[in-house]
Amino acid sequence: MSENKYDNFKTLINSPLGEAYFKSLAETIPHVLCIADSENFRIKYINRQPIGKPFESFIGKEIFNYVWPEYIVIFKQKIQNVKDSGKSSVLDLEITPADDPKGKLWYRVYISMVSGLEDSSGRLMFLAENITESKRTELENINKSERIKAIINNTNDIICSIDCDHNLMEFNSMFANMVKKGFGIEMQPGMPVLHFVDPAKHEHLKIIYKRVEKGEVYCDIESFQTLHGNEVFNETSYNPIYDVDKKIIGINIFSKDITERVKSEQKIKNALKEKEVLLAEIHHRIKNNLAMVSSLLQLQEMNINNAEVKEALSLSRKRIKSTALIHELLYRSESFQNIKLKDYLTELFYHLKMNGNTFLLLKGDEVTMNLFTAMPLGLMLNEIMLNSFKHSYNEKSKGQIEISIIPLATKLLIYYSDFEGNFPDHIDFRNSKTTGLTLIHTFAEQLNGSIELVSKTPPKYLIQLPLNEN
């Protein structure tokens, strides 16, 4: 208030209307206002009945009659300070009403000497403001803050915040204890966070900080060497901190120790690798054993003159070789669950073909399948190819087989076509007693599929297999 305005105010208060003017002001404010004699502390004026203190009359009563006993001493001290210095004083009171022990009330009392009113020399003015709601809000915020702080400090994760100069602003006890144990340093706000990080990691972290300072949320898995030489792994997230103007002023860092998880994952990977090596060795040995059986049959075939027996041994040897091809592909594959059908058909064809002028034309998409599907399907196609070489291209100088692979949503279609030859009219494709056709239908049933002869001249087959039943 300017000096001129203050002089005007004093003039108004000291005028005959001063006391009435003061009372009208006092009765409009929401606080309890009381005027008391500074010597005997008896009440001269009060604008309303104080909350929580039911009584009939205040005038002439000593002010200390209405002060909670636990505050009387400090109340008197404050009054004396005001009288001695002539300056105002403030006192906060916490009150527990007798009728409601759980419902605490808070008042802020302003104490000052008052002058300017008629007969106001040596008067004290008390202005009591009910601050219960604001105090409860303040305490609630403090409690929330303390709960959050307790949660942060009791976690096993590293939590801290840094400013844009990469200096510590706040950190939890986990981080502080780790630094004290590892570096023998008591962490303090303002310290550079990189001071507690391996220098080899500094450039990497600075790159991350720059990205986060541009508004990016970043997650990283980092490895560190402890003072004892052990390697630990942490999964760390970096989040920008914004001020009220949406300006980035720092970075929140949350880092979780995932060393045990990484070690467990590594153990699983090592176990899987050992299993893969073992399975590869098993398939390799099965392939070698089948090759040995095939060689024995070939030796037997060379010492037999009977044409029918000789052919039977030759067919059996080729069937064994077809089975061995599956195990060889599995041995060479990176995955023991995925055999590429086109690769298998190509190797099967070149194993069975009669001469260098017979060719295979593969169409359609690549399909992968596991051992339990590839084995019977391969043996089925082995029999069909043998029939092609035996009946369609036995006496031909050139030949071509076309196989189309068509994967659909729930089933796989395979069209197998010769370009020449005839399927024998005297053979019933469905009910033949020949070994080859019996095996073809047996393998189709084993796969929960079907095979149809859709054309006799030239022979063409349609194989249908369910997908996703492996």
Question: What's the topology here?
Answer:
Elements: H1 3-14, H2 18-28, E1 32-37, E2 43-46, H3 72-85, E3 89-95, E4 105-114, E5 123-130, H4 132-154, E6 158-163, E7 168-171, H5 173-183, H6 202-212, E8 218-225, E9 231-242, E10 248-257, H7 259-302, H8 307-332, E11 339-340, H9 341-352, E12 358-364, E13 368-369, H10 371-392, E14 399-407, E15 411-418, H11 435-446, E16 450-455, E17 460-466
Parallel strand pairs: 12-14
Antiparallel strand pairs: 1-2, 1-5, 3-4, 4-5, 6-7, 6-10, 8-9, 9-10, 11-13, 14-15, 15-17, 16-17
Structure description:
By secondary structure, the protein is α+β, with helices and mostly antiparallel strands. The protein folds into 4 domains: 3-137, 2-Layer Sandwich (Beta-Lactamase), CATH 3.30.450.20; 155-257, PAS domain (Beta-Lactamase), CATH 3.30.450.20; 259-336; 337-470, Histidine kinase-like ATPase, C-terminal domain (Heat Shock Protein 90, 2-Layer Sandwich), CATH 3.30.565. Helices cover 42% and strands 25% of the residues. The chain contains 11 helices and 17 strands. The protein has helices at 3-14, 18-28, 72-85, 132-154, 173-183, 202-212, 259-302, 307-332, 341-352, 371-392, 435-446, and strands spanning 32-37, 43-46, 89-95, 105-114, 123-130, 158-163, 168-171, 218-225, 231-242, 248-257, 339-340, 358-364, 368-369, 399-407, 411-418, 450-455, 460-466. The chain has a 5-stranded antiparallel beta sheet, sandwiched between helices. A 5-stranded antiparallel beta sheet has the order 7-6-10-9-8, with helices on both faces. A 5-stranded mixed beta sheet has the order 12-14-15-17-16, covered by helices on one side. It is rod-shaped and about 140 Å long.
